[in-house]
């Protein structure tokens, strides 16, 4: 069947859509504080556990009935069918006519995964084996730089999905990293990023990983060229092969850039950039943590896949997380979703999930090109706790907006400093409690007892907390490669489920292309002499300002 056949995703015309709106109107007066008071079993009913990862979704504005209706919505959107299509290697990325098989990247050896009649699991494991052999040589000091010294620093040059995932995961798994091999990430075309990274490095002991699925992304190629020029000041052209490797699905472009295809690690068009950390794009991560820990990371992702593809929807972590998100986005009109990891290692995790979610579901047309008459993907943002408490939690507690959030909290730290971890965890739990229950007038009055009337009038409203601000808590035993694999796959599937419900193709990103085209048009105009009149007045004015002020 042609992928371009026009069909319509008219979920918002379905009876269940209308019933959920009705249910929201009927239940929106409920306060979570009362729901907890009425039902001591609420935590027991609204939490799930898998291999040391706990999802507590009890602090949400939901009842059992809400979940039943949301599961009906998932059924109406044919979630089970789309899950089967995803898993079965069908071309669910219809606009690019591609299968979407990041789950195959973490499938165990020997378990076939079929795509267009080919067992892609064999290809995956062949590349994983090459990556592991390469990493062992570099980590063991057998792969040497041009002057005979072992590699001490790896610089990953990539952007978007070819940067954020490996960066976030290698930061999080720093306790597992080699003490003798440092991994750096350079993404921005702002020369400062590369220059400030290289000023600390020695070309004799530095290895560059040029990570780009398309190998056409200008930011990455410019950084790669600049890195090669920096290297060439010390080493010869023949030495480039020992200091530059590539990760890409575009072998001809890699060759054209001058990297030996023998030093290229392949991945495939059925791996989306923002889903590619598990693929050869994770080479920098494997270099940092080693092949065994990388395998544990894949195993964690696979454990979540098994759960996702087998658990009933009402006991399925990614499905529940997605449905609760849809509840706020679509039926409460919430615009944002915050992610707060209470773990310093996870500080870049919100940025990765931001790309994963917003590039996947930030769309206004459905997968068949139809216009969607409802809000889709939310603005995803976040910051590590407790820093976030001292930055923006005021708005969550006493502002006017509904801001659903996720708290990610490991129960153990890799860096136990005199009970500090307990303080961190206490803060996370306290925040979810405060956001949920708020502070009533009676409670505030009790605190202000004895104040004279005028002061009381002024202070009382300031001491009230409305509460009813929803949150999920994802608690994990400890941040390990395995638990992080589960966590990342949890979010990937959540995004997929939401895309299915909203009728979105979560695997293309046409919106990013337009800005690239315009930048390519403006670039030569920045150095032209004649007056710039080709754009709107603002853009013309900005180009003129650049010409007046830029020092060549
Ligand atoms: O931001 C757009 C995007 O296409 C992402 O989806 C992708 O991860 C990134 O650019 C980098 O692309 P590439 O890996 O092809 O260089």
Description:
This protein has 552 residues and is an alpha/beta fold. It folds into 3 domains: 32-91 and 311-437 and 470-508, Rossmann fold (3-Layer(aba) Sandwich), CATH 3.40.50.10490; 103-296, Rossmann fold (3-Layer(aba) Sandwich), CATH 3.40.50.10490; 511-549. Helices cover 46% and strands 11% of the residues. It is built from 22 helices and 13 strands. It has helices spanning 15-27, 32-38, 42-45, 64-76, 79-87, 120-139, 164-172, 191-198, 218-232, 240-243, 251-257, 283-289, 291-310, 317-331, 349-361, 393-398, 420-437, 441-447, 453-459, 481-502, 511-525, 537-549, and strands at residues 47-50, 53-56, 114-115, 118-119, 153-157, 182-186, 206-211, 244-248, 264-266, 336-341, 379-382, 405-412, 471-478. The strands form 3 sheets. It has a 6-stranded mixed β-sheet, sandwiched between helices. Strands 6-5-7-8-9 form a 5-stranded parallel β-sheet, with helices on both faces. A two-stranded antiparallel sheet has the order 3-4. Strand 8 (244-248), helix 11 and strand 9 form a beta-alpha-beta unit. The longest helix is centred in the last third of the chain and has 22 residues, at 481-502. It is globular. It binds 6-O-phosphono-beta-D-fructofuranose (F6P). 6-O-phosphono-beta-D-fructofuranose binds at residues 159-162, 212-214, 217, 220, 273-274, 359, 509, 512.
